[in-house]
């Protein structure tokens, strides 16, 4: 089961698993501001960071392998001249130092007396002030500060896997197309790879380009589910939900290209339609002359035209299969209009025989359409004598069978040389059987 987390710009709560371990001692530095007692008491964790010395030296953002660094936190106390609070520091989820300290009004800092020897990989330093929640504060959600850093190459990777909608804050049913006025909760799947401890990351969800929620959330190793705590009220029309992970780009990752995911959906009657209009062949990727009949051994490129009825671009996928095997595929941003094409960048080397090219647009049904049955386009073609257009009308139909029989009976060839269906360079009964199978066998 994926672990659910809630994120909202107005209300984000961060829960930390605390581990009781033997740990090193704490020290405190402070800047005292004289003030009388105020009504609102608040302990604020401002910033976690590293230094080369305890309460001194240089600040370090990316330690070198084996370097001794000291963990620090800047804090601010509001509403009291001083207060005793339990303070804890964790590195990669393990308790590093811990103890009760007197925090003083205004800005101050806390550090661990013992150094941490930097080890390779991605790490997270996490500080928790008032760790046992003994202080009654005006804001209980600002007692923690985290700092993610790398020693050498990063090892962690945050992957935004799927954006979707649910009917409830704590679960409910997944909704593909909400009804007008329905309250839904925007949700994202996130996977954390490469580390065995959680990382804090800032997320945000956008609906039609406008931020719906955002904030810092702890992401655990493996699969996670995060949702906004504030519902979205469905309005009629086409919409796009987009999630962005690590929006401030503070976490170094093995891949920075997988931190966003989006989906399109429709409220009310669908108005969008994506149509695969025509599959064809070219001699170059995305350009050059069309190739109706490839020569044996020729490198050709697969292409398909499409028409998108929509007021805006739609993100989806496309793939091309040749003779039932995947040739290319990937994410496509389909543009509104007609006469637009998609092509494979990799060539296919023509081999003898009759072949089936199948293009499928939006194979995952990400785009909600008025007609889901027109997303495929097929092209049957021959190589080496290609073949089945025996009457030279550039169409492949039952009339070719009649024409081929006539040519064979007369011992002649079609003017376009397309009736040698089996590429044997001999006109015989085998060509008729080849054509008949090609025409009447379901593809």
Question: Structural class of the helices, strands and pairings?
Answer: mainly beta
Per the CATH scheme, the topology name of the largest domain is: Immunoglobulin-like
CATH architecture grouping of the largest domain: Sandwich
Q: Tell me roughly what share of residues is in helical segments.
A: under 10%
Nutshell version of this structure?
The chain has 443 residues and is mainly beta. The chain has helices spanning 398-410, 429-440; strands at residues 3-7, 26-30, 42-53, 56-60, 68-91, 94-112, 116-117, 121-129, 144-151, 157-168, 171-175, 183-193, 199-207, 210-219, 222-228, 232-233, 237-245, 260-267, 273-284, 287-290, 299-309, 314-322, 325-334, 337-343, 348-349, 353-361, 376-383. It has four domains: 19-151, Immunoglobulin-like, CATH 2.60.40; 157-267, Sandwich (Immunoglobulin-like), CATH 2.60.40; 273-383, Immunoglobulin-like (Sandwich); 398-440, no CATH class.
Keywords:
6% helix; disordered C terminus; Immunoglobulin-like; 4 domains; single chain; elongated; 53% strand; mainly beta; 6-stranded mixed beta sheet; 443 residues; 27 strands; 8-stranded antiparallel beta sheet
Description:
The protein is built from two helices and 27 strands. Strands 2, 3, 4, 5, 6, 7, 8 and 9 form an eight-stranded antiparallel β-sheet that branches. With 443 residues, it is mostly beta strands. Mean pLDDT is 82; it is low at 1-25, 28-38 and 434-443. Helix 1 packs antiparallel against helix 2 (429-440). It folds into four domains: 19-151, Sandwich (Immunoglobulin-like); 157-267, Sandwich (Immunoglobulin-like); 273-383, Immunoglobulin-like (Sandwich), CATH 2.60.40.10; 398-440, no CATH class. Strand 3 (42-53) and strand 4 form a beta hairpin. The protein has helices at 398-410, 429-440, and strands at 3-7, 26-30, 42-53, 56-60, 68-91, 94-112, 116-117, 121-129, 144-151, 157-168, 171-175, 183-193, 199-207, 210-219, 222-228, 232-233, 237-245, 260-267, 273-284, 287-290, 299-309, 314-322, 325-334, 337-343, 348-349, 353-361, 376-383.
């Amino acid at each position: 089961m994926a672990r659910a987390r809630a994120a909202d710009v107005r209300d984000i709560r961060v829960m930390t698993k605390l581990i009781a371990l033997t740990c090193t001692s704490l020290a405190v530095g402070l800047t005292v501001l004289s003030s009388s007692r105020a009504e609102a008491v608040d302990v604020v964790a401002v910033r976690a960071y590293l230094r080369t010395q305890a309460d001194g030296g240089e600040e370090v953002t990316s330690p070198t392998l084996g370097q001794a660094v000291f963990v620090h936190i800047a804090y601010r106390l509001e509403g009291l001249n001083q207060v005793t609070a339990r303070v804890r520091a964790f590195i990669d989820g393990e308790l590093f130092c811990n103890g009760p300290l007197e925090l003083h009004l205004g800005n101050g800092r806390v550090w661990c007396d013992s150094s941490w020897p930097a080890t390779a990989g991605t790490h997270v330093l996490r500080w928790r002030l008032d760790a046992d929640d003994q202080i009654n504060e005006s804001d209980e959600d600002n007692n923690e500060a985290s700092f993610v850093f790398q020693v050498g190459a990063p090892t962690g990777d945050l992957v935004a896997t799927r954006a979707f909608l649910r009917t409830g804050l704590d679960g409910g049913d997944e909704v593909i197309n909400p009804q007008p006025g329905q309250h839904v909760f925007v949700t994202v799947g996130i996977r954390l790879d490469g580390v065995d401890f959680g990382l804090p990351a800032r997320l945000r969800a956008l609906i039609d380009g406008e931020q719906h929620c955002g904030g810092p959330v702890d992401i655990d190793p493996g699969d996670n589910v995060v949702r906004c705590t504030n519902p979205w009220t469905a309005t009629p029309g086409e919409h796009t939900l987009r999630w962005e992970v690590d929006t401030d780009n503070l976490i170094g990752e093995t891949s920075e290209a997988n931190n966003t995911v989006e989906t399109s959906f429709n409220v009310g009657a669908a108005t969008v339609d994506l149509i695969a209009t025509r599959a064809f062949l070219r001699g170059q990727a995305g350009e050059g002359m069309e190739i109706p009949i490839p020569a044996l051994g020729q490198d050709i490129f697969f292409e398909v035209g499409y028409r998108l009825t929509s007021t805006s671009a739609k993100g989806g996928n496309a793939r091309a299969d040749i003779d039932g095997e995947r040739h290319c595929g990937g994410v496509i941003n389909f543009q509104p209009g007609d006469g637009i094409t998609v092509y494979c960048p990799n060539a296919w080397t023509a081999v003898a025989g009759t072949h089936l090219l199948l293009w499928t647009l939006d194979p995952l049904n990400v785009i909600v359409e008025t007609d889901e049955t027109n997303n495929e386009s097929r092209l049957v073609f021959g190589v080496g004598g290609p073949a089945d257009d025996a009457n030279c009308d550039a169409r492949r139909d039952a009339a070719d069978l009649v024409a081929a029989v006539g040519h064979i009976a007369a011992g002649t060839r079609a003017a376009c040389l397309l009736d040698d269906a089996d590429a044997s360079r001999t006109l015989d009964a085998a060509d008729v059987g080849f054509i008949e199978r090609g025409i009447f066998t379901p593809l």
